[in-house]
Protein 1
Amino acid sequence: MKVGILGGGQLARMIALAGYPLGLQFVVLDPDEHAGAGGLSEHLHGAYDDPDLLAQLAEKADVVTYEFENVPAHVAEFLSSHTTVYPPANALAVAQDRLVEKNFFNDLGIGTAPYAAVDNLHDLQDAMPNIGFPAILKSRRMGYDGKGQMVLKSTDDLAAAWQAMQGAPSIVEGFVSFQREVSIIAARRPSGDIVFYPLSENQHSGGILRLATACTNDAEQAMAEDYVRRLLEKLDYVGVIALELFDVDGQLLANEFAPRVHNSGHWTIEGSETSQFENHLRAILDLPLGSTQTRGFAAMINFIGGLPQTQELLNLSHVHCHLYDKAPRKGRKVAHATLRTDDAEVFTQTLAKVSALAQRVDQS
Amino acid sequence: MKVGILGGGQLARMIALAGYPLGLQFVVLDPDEHAGAGGLSEHLHGAYDDPDLLAQLAEKADVVTYEFENVPAHVAEFLSSHTTVYPPANALAVAQDRLVEKNFFNDLGIGTAPYAAVDNLHDLQDAMPNIGFPAILKSRRMGYDGKGQMVLKSTDDLAAAWQAMQGAPSIVEGFVSFQREVSIIAARRPSGDIVFYPLSENQHSGGILRLATACTNDAEQAMAEDYVRRLLEKLDYVGVIALELFDVDGQLLANEFAPRVHNSGHWTIEGSETSQFENHLRAILDLPLGSTQTRGFAAMINFIGGLPQTQELLNLSHVHCHLYDKAPRKGRKVAHATLRTDDAEVFTQTLAKVSALAQRVDQS
């Protein structure tokens, strides 16, 4: 069986590494000549919407998946008409538009921060009395890692913020005073079987995920599973999904979901009986889903823009390196480390050491 | 960094899968067009002793290793004179000759079964009063998985057995009445640092390994570590080594060693904090060695000559698939499964199920 992947970066790389033991082969489509999954797969080198390459991808692959959600609708449509594509195109459509996504959450009875559609400065001005300050103005489409977002602290900020959006259809969201950010990762097969990973508690800085920690036996696990199950079933979803949530006094508000494997689930490679990458493959190939049982204490630390010496990381017992074969560049995720141990004290001490290493080399 | 591997089969495949997260790239030399590591590496396609390909391998790789011990001496010599080769050539020389190997064990104070060199029928006849029946006649070189071996039950068997050796320098070994076969896997860095895995208890059938089970806190662990340490230090060894031992009433007798990653260590992928494959790479790259701590109960089951449906295996919780991308053929190892769980009862029950699957498809 050959799996096609739109995108050949670190997510495709980790999907391929999880897939070889299952006897799978891979073909990726990526414009980057040095795509991180390139050495692990057949690499179709060109634009994501190149019709010839898409036709080749559809021809070569038994099933096509993707490592990013901003797949143009016509690309998903083309691929779907020629081969099996998972997750389904409707999940992409919802995830690509923050307004549609927020409405979707609310229609499913899942709370969100207050929000309003903004198509012009008047919309923004009208919305603010209900939304309140501080708030955040975001383009409805194509944002990630904090890009395309403007913070609004008072009415003085509105005009400049709207101008910065350059007329893009937008959404304004109220800030939520949350205790923590968490995400839940789940996988669903075509048959409807679902497995859930334990919550991950996530720390962002500058809009970029820095640390994700596995939360075994979390008090909000059941609520998060209920919410993500509603998404999966409504979308008749197949594959891995990640739902990001704010924990506000024990109530969970949905932030956004990603129809793909997710950075906050990277600790599952060593921290879970079956990783999110393997379960994504099992799901899209309609194979039995693997146990999501956690192995002890686990966390993932991102390296942004710079890398320590491999030796420094491997000197720390219980630390596993994941380099992405990407040239360091400001703000770019170039690697992560997983920390896994059965000992709570070792976990805390080692986490501090790895975090210090990550901060030392940080270029974000 | 680029690692070169002589041989591109399942061991090279699992070395490469362990190496990508460390940011490594791979080049393999293998005559098989469909070498299992081919998709994961640059594949130099041709004979192991092709001078042009060896020169390319030495040129491309920062360090060269191998997945089999029968590397011709002049190949190891050529590579060593052009690049770094680990494990060292002297380990190959010892492991390639059963007589040299047995003498080596005894010189290090490590017991073996009784043995004698056999260069002609007279040698064999002279040796048998001391060796006793039953015994086994083996060519000194190039045997694996029970090939090139003749069982001797009485003096009537001697002439035919010697004839079957076709004049090859041989060794006759007495049978050992052992309680179990075990192996110990260890890794050593150039600096001299060594890590040891827990003993693996191994079950063979027809000369082929079928089942390897991790033995945590084994009574013979210390003795096995002492023995393998003597080997490693005497050989100034770098990389992973596997030492096969017979347990005879609590005394360990050396059978043979393999200067490479070993089938009896495949359970370390899921069963250990760091796999034998990753520690082999860490060792030959002079990186800190990873923890060999075992995670719960772990075992490896080989699939010989045939494969069950992936679905059947993945239906069993706690079971991990490792397919080698090899066409099934009688007697050929085509895959293994790892079973890992914290629950002793689940372990026993699931092991029986996987073993039954392996027996059902067995073609050996």
Protein 2
Amino acid sequence: QQKGIRGKLNILFDAMEGWIVVLAVGVASGILAAIIDITSDWLSDLKEGYCETAFYLNRRFCCLGYDDEQIECNEWIKWNTALQARSASAEFWTNYLFYIIFSTLFATIAAYLVKVYSPYSAGSGIPEVKTILGGFVIRKFLGWWTLIIKSIGVCLVVASSLCLGKEGPLIHLACCCGNIIPRVFPKFRYNEAKKREVLSAAAAAGVSVAFGAPIGGVLFSLEEVSYYFPFRTMWRSFFCAMVAAVSLAFMNPFRTGKLVLFQVVYDRDWHAFELLFFALLGVIGGLYGALFIRMNLKIAAFRQNSWLRFFSVHEVVFVSVLTSIVSYLNIFMRVNPSELVANLFRECVGGDYHNLCNHSNHWKPTLLLLIASVLKFFLTAITFGLKVPAGVWLPSMAIGACFGRAVGLAVHAWQLNNPNFWLFASCAPDGQCITPGMYAMVGAAATFGGITRMTVSLVVIMFELTGALTYVLPIMITVMISKWVGDAFDKEGIYDGWIRMNEYPFLDTKEEYVYNTSASQVMTRVEDLMVIDTTGHNTLDSLKQLLRDTGYKGFPVVNNKAKNMILNGYISRSELKYAIDKARGKQGISSSSSCYFSSNLPVLDSSPFIDFQPWMDQTPITVSHKFPMEMVIELFRKMGLRYVLVTKNGQLLGLITKKDVLRHLSVMHHPNFSDNDDLQDP
Amino acid sequence: QQKGIRGKLNILFDAMEGWIVVLAVGVASGILAAIIDITSDWLSDLKEGYCETAFYLNRRFCCLGYDDEQIECNEWIKWNTALQARSASAEFWTNYLFYIIFSTLFATIAAYLVKVYSPYSAGSGIPEVKTILGGFVIRKFLGWWTLIIKSIGVCLVVASSLCLGKEGPLIHLACCCGNIIPRVFPKFRYNEAKKREVLSAAAAAGVSVAFGAPIGGVLFSLEEVSYYFPFRTMWRSFFCAMVAAVSLAFMNPFRTGKLVLFQVVYDRDWHAFELLFFALLGVIGGLYGALFIRMNLKIAAFRQNSWLRFFSVHEVVFVSVLTSIVSYLNIFMRVNPSELVANLFRECVGGDYHNLCNHSNHWKPTLLLLIASVLKFFLTAITFGLKVPAGVWLPSMAIGACFGRAVGLAVHAWQLNNPNFWLFASCAPDGQCITPGMYAMVGAAATFGGITRMTVSLVVIMFELTGALTYVLPIMITVMISKWVGDAFDKEGIYDGWIRMNEYPFLDTKEEYVYNTSASQVMTRVEDLMVIDTTGHNTLDSLKQLLRDTGYKGFPVVNNKAKNMILNGYISRSELKYAIDKARGKQGISSSSSCYFSSNLPVLDSSPFIDFQPWMDQTPITVSHKFPMEMVIELFRKMGLRYVLVTKNGQLLGLITKKDVLRHLSVMHHPNFSDNDDLQDP
């Protein structure tokens, strides 16, 4: 308790420290996202050609002088020009080949880097981040190596033709920043709760830079990722997400002032009858989600359990070659998904984009879009789970946008051909009535919702992409329907599915459990536990023996084990170990010295002894043996407990750990759950 | 467990029921808000004149043909014209008089209605809504009478010249809808938890219609109002808020397509150096908040404890006359605050508004604005707490907007006179650099933040008012500074202050408590409790006697009171009463029949007995006597407990109720807290 100006300054710094940390995390995430955007854009364009004036420029920057994107600029050299392949077929085959080669090269390098340097960089990282925020430690998952390799990897894979996005990895990378930066501050280094707060904020920053949606990021962190979200965390997360967005805007990676490519502004409103089609898109989105999750998990399980797991790099090469061969032939699959989504979202004002706005011929683009959405579905299902950094959000949105735009084009054609049909009565007689771009956006929201089962945060993200409150209602209805349809098949989103498949110890905070089990049915019975008896003769040796013989994470301490087993406290394995190590250094303590766990310390005994009480949890949370299991689960979830002791009139009956709870839950839900000991309690 | 289509349909309806309820609440809130907007606008304009063509039209609707607001329209008859007072002074005095008369008339009717029909309609209602969502029942607070009287009252007071807003009351009214509508559905009528979920959603809808900010509403409900906010609630709240906003937009009360008058669009960006002035506004906002809360609570305490409390209507008359006399003389105080805020937020593009955009004369409007903000401060401090429906948000925003615009004008004048000053180096040489309207908005956010200490939700509300992400960062920084400055004086916002003053039993979920007390220091000791002894001879008569003699809310049940007092369970007063009442009707039961509270039921005893076990909580939550008090508070907050039993090795030592916790907390914070028994546990 310091007084005076110095004390006040210390308090101020103390209060500021948290803000400084999230500020740094936000800035780092924003800059990292900008670098990844720029690099991957350049690499991606390298598949088509190179910039003559400066090889390190991507197509857009190379052609910055040319206003219209449609005009070919002279500085940008396509590969066929470079190789002087001039006939039409030679041009096609040269570019096709280069597309396949570069695409596969990028994917292969990424897969190799991941395999050799950082296996944790694979996948989106969101299931693991969820698990970590749920209170478990996966060592090195958020370390330097992951940060570096995943950053490089994500640039490469996004530039390849693989069906994946950088959104999930960006969240993982932001969390890496959120793990590494606080290490500088002692207050954060040793405080798990504070660390987790920063991680929640970092996750928000990740979404903020991935979608240019800071508020959506905070809600995502709240809804999807964070386990325990006190209000202070929310405010800090918001700050962190804002700072990240501002940093990204400052870097301005696309030179358009937009935070992400696919931000749109519509200047037309929607009509009530369109809700019908939006609802249809919602149903499709839900079906897509359910189907995708099942298929993807099946493929992933096969990958994990078969010979395939030894050939992760070969698999990436194969999928990459396959994807690029298929993708090049359909313009809607050739371009990178972020650009595709941007183009599909766009209204038909100003330029056209691959005949999407040619009102005389609707059928060709509609067909191409439908083919693209189906092929992308299968390719994404194979791709998500490969051992490269890969997110599933953007491909899902691309699939939805393709399908949505196809539906939009169809409706548009219908309306143009039958303007007097009763459904279109509310259309203005002159001017365009249907905006197919809006259908693409609604479709993207539907598939996004179907796969992640996010609700509020998804709607807010889409709202921030358009900036207008008008479109929130249709998006909301679509997302709701998509979620309902998806939930009718399986209750879990893709991340929960992966968590279950990987058997991560994660206790869902959203599900409601109503079972008629009591604590005594789930607990590990006292007979199967090792307890420390205060009335027994404990020596340093006997305790060391106990540690050596058993692998338990902790030991209940009881009075008079033989008779009434009255609970006295609980000592965790690490505390016990620490106390023993500390005691050994003391004078007069030998390995046969007595150890005491109760307040009945010997007063007349002259030989030195050790008092273990300070290391013991003297007030563990206890529940009665008849206590309903739902309430125990609530206790675990809301209080962040790791164990609860079960007593009957003060007498110890058993112990329930978080793992017992998880095992109990999974037995209820999924009969073939097994224990996973790779993951450690913190 | 029904099967088949019928069962599935039942399940579907069951799942839909919650959505239908929030849909209805949303629609009701939206329509109610629209009606209040239209009515209060009309009444407000009645102070100035009336519409010749149709007396029930307000000025804007009356003059709908006239495009420019500045031109006087012929259909709108000012009072001086009606009374043919033609000289300048006669015109002034006539209008002044009518202003005072109407204003006072409206306020007086409102005060009278509140006093006679519904005292609960007074004030903003937010402190009470918070308390109700915290788990306490205030009977009739959200009933029909409150809904009707507060709706009428809020129209009247908003139309009067009193310094108050309709935002708080709108939230209260939405909660009334959220309380009344679910009564139709049996599932909701009897389930307190579900009722509270709907109330949380209703609060979100209230903010949604008050500010046209559905997302801000949800976050407000989460941040400020709701005690326990599971994720499902969030999604429903969002839906409810959206529906309310859409309903309001559909009614289009302002005929501008805007949901609230003061939505703005800026087409200029801010400069980094302006953050300095925004920070200054933040400091002022924080100081304003701290000062206002202290002053307002002092006045309110005086009102409650002096003779003044018997003259609530007279007081309203007095304040109303005073306010209208003062307000008429300053144009920025004469118009209703919602219009004022809208005009102050506006950029100087297109029309001018009372010389705010006249760049040659900055000083007159600046001075008028400063006078307005100071006078409004004192008037609002007196007004908030009067026995009329009254919110404090809008007047706070108006004060901040006045002050902010004044600062903006000053900075603008400075920049115009010294364009080469180093601070303004980043200004473009031609064109306007400073946007005073933005200063008004930032100032409004600062005072709003200072008074409510809201954070995320406030920023999101302001974001939704402008719709552009660009202005979020300055607003955020301002709100943050305002909160820090305010918190440096008092940690509580205005609502928490009122809750404390009214001694509502509310346990704040946001504060962190770190004390070195243990459960045994706070508990009511077992010696001071009435316990039921299972080994004693309990008869119906003795139990009835117990109920008659004591006022306790519940009784611990112990084994062998005399010897070891082993805890067996807990029975609440109401359950005991119910069980006794039920037993009395049974055959063979007399008032001397034995009552049993343990599983040792008599088997050989032939006389009839009553088993009270089913009515008893057989697994109450217990904590050890050494359990730290912070953890007990956490248990209460997170598990929504109402009591916890303190034991030592199974032996009952005492009882801690929610009230004990509150008393403990308030003793720590505010030494002169007393018990309040008007409010009841549910």
